[in-house]
Sequence to fold (127 residues):
Amino acid sequence: MDPKRLKTFAITHITSNVFLSAVCIYLIVQSKFKVDGMLHWFAFIFIFGLCATVITKRKLIDYFMALLITLPIVLPIIYTTMNGMFSGKIILFDALGFWFIHNQYQQLELIENEVRKNKGYGEEKEE
Fold:
């Protein structure tokens, strides 16, 4: 997938998640909201993300920035899904979409690195 189409797909996917999150927040407000349940899922997301950050040896500041950006979108979706207000398939398809975007960006990054490496090799050979 070319970078322009991938960027468009990623923006569309994130925008749809924002709208889905707004619907979930509406459902949460209409139902009997339990702070304990929301805190439970917040702790789950926080610990899971922290473990993934440590395992992949990424910077903690990157994790906290990603958490601040994605938490308002992800937490309502997970809360409503786990309380039976939405089908669990939503989380599956959402995760598959993010996985696809992540893999495509990694492939583009590998291709760019290979091109840079080949250009650097050609310049060294000319000298």
User: Anything to note?
Assistant: The two ends are 35 Å apart (CA to CA). The chain has a mean pLDDT of 85.
